[in-house]
Amino acid sequence: MTYVITSLCERDGLCVEVCPVECIVPGEPEDEWPTYMIDPDTCIDCGACVPECPTDAIFPDDEVPEEYADATELNARFFSEGPGYDAA
Ligand code: SF4
Ligand code: SF4
User: Fold this and answer.
1) Atom of ligand 1 nearest to the CA of 15
2) How many C-beta atoms surround the C-beta of residue 77 within 10 A?
3) Distance from the alpha carbon of residue 78 to the mean position of ligand 2, in angstroms
4) I need a labelling partner for 25 at 20 to 30 A (CA). Which of 6, 7, 62, 76 fits?
5) Range of 17's domain?
């Protein structure tokens, strides 16, 4: 499992401060990767980022609302094909 950041993200970076494994990275360039992103291979499913988010943008991957379903693939692809940690 992993946690996923959806398009509700307003890019304030608060989640980055609390992630114990530093697997949250700002999507760059923003017009291509519009949210912060969670590396699904490193996330330990601790949930610490969820209460930090002022816009409730972060969900466990099995609870992502239908209207944000594409976010799961987008977060993963940012690390597999996009800049991933090089954007941090
Ligand atoms: S659930 Fe935990 S490990 Fe995963 S991104 Fe959030 S703070 Fe980091
Ligand atoms: S705390 Fe929420 S709004 Fe802020 S960067 Fe993280 S996911 Fe985006």
Assistant:
1) 7
2) 13
3) 16
4) 62
5) 3-87
- Opening angle at CA 84, ends 4 and 25, nearest 5: 55
Distance CA 13, CA 57 (A): 12
pLDDT in tens, 25-39: 999 999 999 999 999
Task: Report if pTM > 0.85.
Answer: yes
Residue 17 has pLDDT above 90, yes or no: yes
Residue 88's pLDDT is what? 78
Residues with CB under 6 A from ligand 2: 5, 9-15, 36, 52-53, 55, 57-58
One-letter amino acid of 88:
A
Question: Percentage of residues in the chain with pLDDT exceeding 70?
Answer: 100
Number of domains in the chain: 1
Structure tokens at 34: 């519009």
Query: Region 31-48: what's the mean pLDDT?
Result: 98
Task: Please indicate whether residue 49, judged by its CB atom, sits closer than 6 Å to ligand 1.
Answer: yes
